[in-house]
Amino acid sequence: MAEMREQALYGDLDTSVPEIRLLALLPSPQPNAPLVGQLQVVSLHSPPPYESLSYAWGAPEFTEPIVINEQTRFVTPNLDSALRALRHEEIPRLLWIDAICINQRSPQERGHQVTLMRTIYSQCERDLLWLGPNTHVEQTDYINPSEDQLGEGMRLMRCIADKDMSVLGVMGHKWAAYQTKWRERWLRSLKRQQSENDVPDAELAARIEQTEAELSSAANDSDSAWLLSYAEQTALHQILTFPTVWNRLWVMQELSLAPKIHLVGGRHTLDWDIISGFLGDTPYADAFHATYSHNTVQSCVGRIFENVQKIDHQRRIMKEITAGHRESKLMDVLARFRDTQSSDPRDKIYGLLGLVSGETNIEISYELTPQQVFTSVTAAIINETGNLDTICQRPWTSNTGFTSFTDAQEGSTGQDKLPSWAADFSKGGQIHLFAQRSIFQAGRPSCKVPCHVMNGSVLHTKGTVLGRIGPILQQDSVESPQQGADSTWTALEWLKLYLGYDVLAASELDHPYVTGETAFTAFWRTMVVDCAAYPMTRLTKDQVEEEDSAIRSKWLQKLNESTGPETKPSHDGDSFINPGIHTMWMRITSDWVFSITTNGLYVLIMPPAKEGDIIVCLDGGKVPVVLRPLEETSGGEKKRYQFINVAYVHGLMDFGTGDSTTLREKLGLEDQEFWLV
């Protein structure tokens, strides 16, 4: 019966034209009057002027009535709130709204209309981004800001963008006061050090003099920097962060494509160009600061404006694509908006395809399972890029490993199980070894494309086995990650477990690593993945030589200070001279585990890697990967492997550059084929 009513209301669209439906929202001067509208079919070749609506569906509760073509339908409370606010008093308003203009009960129509999204949003006059308030939702600042709060946020944004000195002057005075307070505290600390020194320190005296000079001119700081109050931070958050619409995946595409955008908060509106102009006005935008946890003061652009920055960046890319100056690759788009949400996991792909330049050869079908979609998209990215960045870099994982959402489903088989090599696009996460940035080149630069996927799930690859993971001495297994600053998990403890403290003073002849450097040098370089940050760069020969002698001396000093056989050495967080290397030190020791392969290679691995897994450089993979051999199959089938995650292997991170012949021969490494399941 429901399907018959849907068919009577919607009918069939001509997919060859192409056609869409628009809603003519009829006017009413009374806010509480029933919502009434008419659907009309139009061709995208010559549509009438219309606006599109971007909003958060909210809970899937279709409780609010709207009369469409004389039939009563029900929409979500959020949409009801938006339509009542947008309805004109005297003339109809022509809108494209996904929940109303698409027959949601027809998978075939949904799939077809998704293919038109780029055109639908590109051809609208403007996109109306509904921030609220949603009158059916509990009123709280952090979920559903009120109309007045949304209006205040928009007013402040205009003042900042217009450089209104009545607002900036107050912020500048706050910044100057903060700087004065900070410098006074720093000056007291310096003078205390000076009074405690028995011998005059010329460098310390110079720093005191410099700080005193900065204090005398602190008032001028208000000319170049501004500090937002808590109330001002909150006002901006209420329009740019708190509304749930900013987390909706479909909105990312809608806003990136629309020629113009109006943020709507009840009766208040804000033109997107005001925000975009502010973000593009550097260093002015970077001069705004705010106080965060532990009273730390940081630039507010990356915190408050994080959502709009991503969208504004994509909007600029789309304009450059139109002008023929830019490409927008599938993997880049999926990674950029990976932390957004959609009720249907397939929409993590379908909802962003309109932002990709060129052909993707991805079938849009809601009759496919999410696992089938994710597998085919991973293969499509491999074919598009000619490499395995989607496997080696993929940011759709958590800190605790690369296990997919279907791995936990016991008994899942066939199309219900996501292959280990396929990216789980339903997740957000972080990039672990910067594969896409070409920091490393462990595998050969490219892989064979189109890639060979057998039975829709088994990926055929080639590569070189570097070694097999040996015993993990920190614990029985690496199934559970160890976080925090527990000294058991510090690098010195790992050094003791695997190599012994004697390597600290050993010469190159006593404990050489496979690269020819000392074991200790290879160890600490492993612990920072041979990089400094940020920006991410490989260590130079001079940096290695400078740090090597300094860290040896410091660690030996700490060991000498220890007393008793059971005493653990104390640790100084500033072990490295270069702050960029120290940044990597802190990043790596919180997520990774050190081990040594059975053929003597120093490696960093992450859960759920374990002893017996193999480390491989795959063709087209910029970083090594951990594979788990599965049981031998009968009937002469190829041996299969499960992809676990990525790994760092010291001395072999440039294995694919062509300079690895000596190491390949020294370690007896050979190429082979792999079938990943």
What does this structure look like?
The chain has 677 residues and is α+β, with helices and mostly antiparallel strands. The protein is built from 22 helices and 23 strands. Among the domains are: 2-125, no CATH class; 147-308, no CATH class. The model is unreliable at 398-414, 476-489 and 563-573 (pLDDT under 50). Strand 9 and strand 10 form a beta hairpin. This is Heterokaryon incompatibility domain-containing protein. It holds the Pfam family HET.
Task: Explain the layout of strands and helices.
Blueprint: H1 2-10, E1 19-25, E2 35-43, E3 51-54, E4 64-68, E5 71-75, H2 77-86, E6 93-96, H3 98-101, H4 107-114, H5 117-123, E7 127-132, H6 147-161, H7 165-196, H8 202-216, E8 226-227, H9 230-240, H10 249-257, E9 261-265, E10 268-271, H11 272-279, E11 288-291, E12 297-299, H12 301-304, H13 306-322, H14 330-336, H15 347-350, H16 370-385, H17 389-392, E13 452-454, E14 458-468, H18 491-498, H19 519-527, E15 531-532, E16 537-538, H20 541-561, H21 579-591, E17 593-596, E18 602-605, E19 614-618, E20 625-629, E21 640-646, E22 648-649, H22 661-667, E23 671-676
Parallel strand pairs: 2-4, 3-6, 3-7, 7-9, 8-11, 21-23
Antiparallel strand pairs: 1-2, 1-6, 4-5, 9-10, 11-12, 13-14, 14-19, 14-23, 15-16, 17-18, 18-22, 19-20, 20-21
